[in-house]
Amino acid sequence: DPFTPLTDLYATSALTQDARRALAAPRLAAIVRTSGTPLDRLSLAAIRALADHATWEPRTEADHRRAAALHARLAELSTDPAERADALLAASHHARATDDTTRARALAFRFAETFPDHPDVDAALTLAVGADPDATTLDRALDINPVHPLADTWRLDLARITRGSAALDLLAEITPATPGSAALALELIDEQLPAASPDERTTLLARAADEARVLAGDLDPSRRLLLARSLAVTDPDQAERTLADLPPQLATSTDADRVRLTIAETRTADPEAYPGGEATAFTTARAIAERRSPEANNSGPDQDTDTGLYWHAVTLWLELGARHGGHNAKAA
Fold first, then answer.
1. CA 68 – CA 40 distance, rounded (Å)
2. If you write DSSP's letter for every residue of 205-257 in order, what string do you get?
3. What is the pLDDT at residue 20?
4. Pick from 265, 257, 278, 199: which is nearest to 236 by CA?
5. Which residues contact 81 (CB under 8 A, 6 or more apart)?
6. Tens-digit pLDDT profile for residues 11-28
7. Can you tell me the distance from the alpha carbon of 259 to that of 332, in angstroms, rounded to the nearest whole number?
């Protein structure tokens, strides 16, 4: 091996690292360049020295490319886990310096998958994902480290790309939910509702109610009212909680009262599923009838809306009062 004298000098423990870099590595690099010897024919000792020298003072893009190749080769040849880890990480950084994001990403992922317990694995994954990742990259990063500090951000980005039920499952892993994840979840639910089966629709609407509570005041009130209307038949309890978050002006609107009547009718239709539901429905219908009566509206109700709502509430109120008798019947 023509490099043996120099690699022996480089490995001499009596020399400091800077001395080795100054004495042996530059001469090795010059010999390799002039001889044209390919990297796969150099010994481990020579690769080690050349990689160290290349990292010491890279000046140009070509220097970084060579440093990346040398460290990648060192990672292949070395049997020392610590040296292999350092070499892979260095190779990735040098590849990134040349704007070769594909190679930098591949090397960073190789490092993270090979050394998942290394203290620099989170930084390597951050480097691997980069600024504009695709779905494959995000999925791979989450598979390697699902608890990475940026994992929830990656889940959100991946959900935006993948859409569908798989995206909703990803968003469910973000705990606690954030306004960003909740807003995206509602968007995905709106996309899936038209084609959903009755059971799927029930599940999706229940999920939508949960996400709406996360958004609180950030959710458009009309969107919240629409959600309550959709829930009124399938999940009256959720619908009622959703109505409770409406702003005062909308909470007292005729649209909100129509939803309340639907909730009341759902509970009375299945008293076994909603114990005490008829008593609650009676109170609700009575309150709406009193609030919507023509006499209570000094400005005069809209005959197509308020009057119809009034008689709807009165009918339910009377039916429930007559059904149960006692003080309810007298009140009706």
1. 14
2. HHHHHHHHHHHGGGS-HHHHHHHHHHHHHH-HHHHHHHHHTS-HHHHTSHHHH
3. 61
4. 265
5. 115
6. 665 666 666 656 656 666
7. 21
Q: Coil, strand, or helix at residue 183?
A: helix
b/e string for 86-107 if b means 16 or more Cβ within 10 A? bbbbbbbbbbbbbebeebbbbb
Q: What is the largest CA-CA distance in the chain?
A: 111
The number of residues in the chain equals 332
Query: How many alpha carbons lie under 13 Å from residue 73 in its C-beta half-sphere?
Result: 22
CB 123 within 8 A of CB 98: no
Residues whose CB falls within 8 Å of the CB of residue 69, separated by 6 or more in sequence, listed in order: 39, 91
pTM: 0.72
Rounded CA-CA distance 143/105 in Å is: 15
State both tokens at 325: 């008798």
